[in-house]
Amino acid sequence: QVQLVESGGGLVQAGGSLRLSCTASGRVFSVNAMGWYRQVPGRQRELVAAIDNGGYTNYGDSREGRFTISRDNAKNTVYLQMNSLRPEDTGVYYCNAEVEVHAGLENAYWGQGTQVTVSS
Question: Contacts by 62-69 with C-beta closer than 8 Å and gap 24+?
Fold first, then answer.
């Protein structure tokens, strides 16, 4: 059907940077909004950033200008550039995409998640 393949997570020291990427593949008619969500054990998954297929973005309240979301529509890929990382940014980052598998049928899909760990 549809797969979201994520990469770019890892362990980084506070103040460092990571760039996450997520590509939608499979039976994809079109990809609409895409976004990144973070989940910490014991807490609900929360929005980090989202971007629609017109390039309009929406960031979570705690971003403080450190994160930038972008996308390559031709590649059905979304990116999250994370700078000045803090230990509180630690979590599993999940890619989400609103995908039309065929005209008129849209579903939300999730990636498997990529671990981001920021050490002090």
Answer: 62/88, 69/35, 69/36
- Alpha carbon 44 to its chain's center: 16
> Alpha-carbon distance 42 to 30, whole Å?
34
User: How far out from the chain centre does Cα 23 lie?
Assistant: 10
pLDDT per residue over 81-110, tens digit each? 999 999 999 999 999 999 998 888 999 999
CB atoms within 10 A of CB 102: 10
Give the count of beta carbons closer than 10 Å to the beta carbon of residue 66: 15
pLDDT digits (tens, 9 = 90+) for 7-49: 999 999 999 999 999 999 999 999 999 999 999 999 999 999 9
Cβ proximity of 14 and 118 under 8 Å = yes
Burial of 13 (0-12, 13-18, 19+ CB in 10 A): exposed
